[in-house]
Amino acid sequence: MRILLVEDEKNLSAAVCRLLQQERFVVDPAYTGPEGLDCALTGAYDAVILDVMLPGMDGFTVLERLRAGGFRTPVMMLTARGDLQDRIRGLEGGADYYLPKPFQMGELVACLRAITRRGEGAPVMALSFAGVSLSEKDASLTNDATGQSVKLGAKEYQLMEVFLRNPGQILPKETLIERVWGYDSEAEYNNLEVYVSFLR
């Protein structure tokens, strides 16, 4: 699952990115309102975490522009502005959740998982194709015929998730590196080949 984090406090952004990566999310940071808006409009993300106080354009305006354009991806507002009027403005503007700072990291992850499941009926806990299933719950890959399973590491899980969400497609190496390591990663093709060999 790919997340866009729009937060101008770089230390906090880095901490949240690390946490979400440990939870097997792929996270791309953005640090200004206009940058966050442009990134969100690419449609590459499963959810957006959006601060309110941003340089260039505040988070309320970013959210309003996204929703006005028909943007349906879940958005969580994450901000120090936690008074009632701000929460009302955020929720009425189209936010799926409004989490005031300071917050507990466990709550952030739980809320993020909750908003990405809304509108999908029962939570999808596994992806399957060609006789194998990938479990989101425990990061295990299972052979459906034999019941044998193996627990995957974080990068292995993220790679297999990309493969199972794009069955029957040939994905370029550049696409895989962007989806798993991020746009600004210095990962090289041999990093990708190592993890693909692990999966095989």
Strand order of the largest sheet: 2-1-3-4-5
Global structural class: alpha/beta
Mean pLDDT metric: 82
Specify the number of helices.
Answer: 8
Distance between the termini: 22 Å
Shape: elongated
Global Rg: 18 Å
Strand composition percent: 15-25%
Helix content: 40-55%
Secondary-structure element order, N to C: EHEHEHEHEHEEEEHHH
- Which residues sit in consecutive blocks of at least 5 with pLDDT less than 50? 119-125
Task: Report the sheet with the most strands, covering strand number, pairing sense and barrel closure.
Answer: 5 strands, parallel
Number of strands: 9
Set down the secondary structure blueprint.
Elements: E1 2-6, H1 10-22, E2 26-30, H2 33-40, E3 47-50, H3 59-68, E4 75-79, H4 84-92, E5 97-100, H5 105-117, E6 126-129, E7 132-135, E8 140-143, E9 149-151, H6 154-165, H7 173-181, H8 189-199
Parallel strand pairs: 1-2, 1-3, 3-4, 4-5
Antiparallel strand pairs: 6-7, 7-8, 8-9
Helix pairs in contact: 2-3, 6-7, 6-8
Summarize the structure.
By secondary structure, this protein is an alpha/beta fold. It has helices spanning 10-22, 33-40, 59-68, 84-92, 105-117, 154-165, 173-181, 189-199; strands spanning 2-6, 26-30, 47-50, 75-79, 97-100, 126-129, 132-135, 140-143, 149-151.
Descriptive account of the structure:
With 200 residues, this protein is α/β, with parallel strands linked by helices. It contains eight helices and nine strands. Helix 2 runs parallel beside helix 3 and helix 6 (154-165) packs across helix 7 (173-181). The longest helix is centred in the first third of the chain and has 13 residues, at 10-22.
